[in-house]
Amino acid sequence: MLALCYQEALQENGCLYLLELQDASQHLSWKVASASEVTFACYLANKLDIRVEWEPIHPDLIASAPDATLSALACQVELPLSIQIEGVMLTATCRETGLDYTMTIQVGDRQHSIPLDGQARNPGLPSFRDCISCSYGQARWLYELPGMATDPESDE
Questions:
Q1: Is 110 helix (H, G, I), strand (E, B) or coil?
Q2: Which of 11, 27, 61, 82 could join 135 via S-S bond, C-beta 3.0 to 4.6 A?
Q3: Is residue 128 part of a domain?
Q4: What is the pTM of this model?
Q5: Per-residue confidence of the chain (156 residues) as pLDDT tens digits?
Q6: How far apart are CA 102 and CA 128, in angstroms?
């Protein structure tokens, strides 16, 4: 949703990237800027003389990567995940993505289905994104996940 809001803000203001939107927002009124969350954030950053120089909605960031991309990567490298099942922390392996926006994970000899994002349907099972966050909280970029999966003790 934020990605859509971001793209709309860029389009409405004739900008290509965030710094350009920040510059353009200085000429807007409070009322016009507050019509969009992203435009308003840029407007306020400009008023506070803050320069945000990173791309907040980058397709290679874990947080903004589409569920299909993140789940495909996880299945391709058989990404291990920490997951709490019935009060016990276990290690699961990503197996496949279902058509119903679920991820099949393997825990020992048992398989479980967890939602890719959002609230779990089965009480006690977190979503795939929650597991990624718990297991790889220090990772920001998609390309970091395979390396962290092979070297879990790494600080990078």
A1: strand
A2: 82
A3: yes
A4: 0.65
A5: 677 888 899 999 999 888 899 999 999 999 999 999 999 999 999 999 998 877 767 778 888 888 889 999 999 999 999 998 888 999 999 999 988 888 999 999 999 989 988 765 656 689 899 999 999 988 888 999 988 876 555 444
A6: 8
Is there a domain that residue 59 lies in?
A: no
10 and 77 fall within a common domain: no
Domain that holds residue 71: 67-150
Tell me the C-alpha to C-alpha distance, in Å, between residue 77 and each of 34, 55, 60, 81, 105.
43, 27, 16, 12, 13
Overall number of domains in the chain: 2
Q: What is the CATH number of the domain that holds 146?
A: 2.30.30
User: Any idea what DSSP says for residue 103?
Assistant: E
If phi > 0 it is left, if psi is from -120 to 50 it is alpha, else beta; for residue 111 that is beta
